[in-house]
Amino acid sequence: MSDKQHSPKIWLSAPHMGGAEQSFVEEAFATNWVAPLGPHVDGFEADLSIFLGRDRHVTALSSGTAALHLALILLGVDRGDEVICQSMTFSASANPIGYLGATPVFVDSETDTWNMSPDLLEKAIRDRQAKGKKIKAIIPVHLYGMPARMDRIQAIAQHYGIPIVEDAAEALGSTLKGRQMGTLGDLSILSFNGNKIITTSGGGALVSGDAGWIKRARYLATQARDPAPHYEHSVLGYNYRMSNICAGIGRGQMQVLEDRVLQRRANFAFYYDWLAGVPGFSFQPEAEGAYSNRWLTTILVDPACSPGGVTREDLRLALAADNIESRPLWKPMHRQPVFEGCPFYGDGTADRLFEQGLCLPSGTSLTPGDLERVRAVLLKLFQTNTISTP
Ligand SMILES: *Cc1c(COP(=O)(O)O)cnc(C)c1O
To answer: Which residues catalyse the reaction (predicted)?
Structure first.
């Protein structure tokens, strides 16, 4: 057996507790608030609301996917409707459209932010409307923490009178011209899944400036119980609330969120310092006015100019051989079998990102030694390739 097989695993993005989480959870046990409601849920919602600012109302839910599902229900998305969604994203952005029997219409990314192209968004809206389709919502995503071009997307949405459901699952702590991600949609969603910048082990939140919508979402998320001493229901309900235990973890994580953003950005800086100069290598650009939480550091590898023609798959396999996890970028939704036949408006950008893109280990608990291990593997790969390919 080689030494390599004994190298400890380096994960792409592992959960990272700050220290206070356990005492919040212990408090929940001590007070017997072991339920999908309680003081930590209220406290976590208040923490988020204060952090986001801009008079946002927040309801904590069981997942980001549940938050998206409720957002689309609040907007009245129904069978036969269409919802425009960024193609370059995780499937959870689009699945809730399908839950409601509506059709996702996928829009390609722009090269500047890797997020929804405003030009293609407008093209899609015009074409769908010309075909007599009813578009109920637009779902832009802030991929890997990078703010989408929201000023233009908001202007287009407003012009055509279509609400925005902002998928900020990956972007808590990122800002655009001083505004927090998660505050730029009519409805916005956050995720606290285990691999996100902060975690509640599993959870999400729905955010809006409209208190009435958040109140309605809370009602729907708790089985839609009408006011009565018995159980009375006039609409379909869901069991989507966050538990008081998970919210306790969230309260502890909120204390370290700003540190986590700085740590993720330091990971990015580490990679950028020695990889930006390698021919054929490039990074997700941070547009003017944007501040990314750099949830994951992502690179593009163009084999037409990279050392010895290495591909992102060569990188991934070399890292995996040393027990280091990395992952291709999200495979675009218009390429997924589950969404086959759905309309797509694109110019090949997401396809190229998927083909050339790789997410590098980006967790905040990575040690300098871990990062050095990643560097050593890649430098060795460049050397081998440069020598073997004159
Ligand atoms: C993680 C994620 C979600 C879903 O959040 P869950 O809490 O895992 O349900 C939605 N959209 C994007 C872009 C995500 O990365």
So the answer is: 196
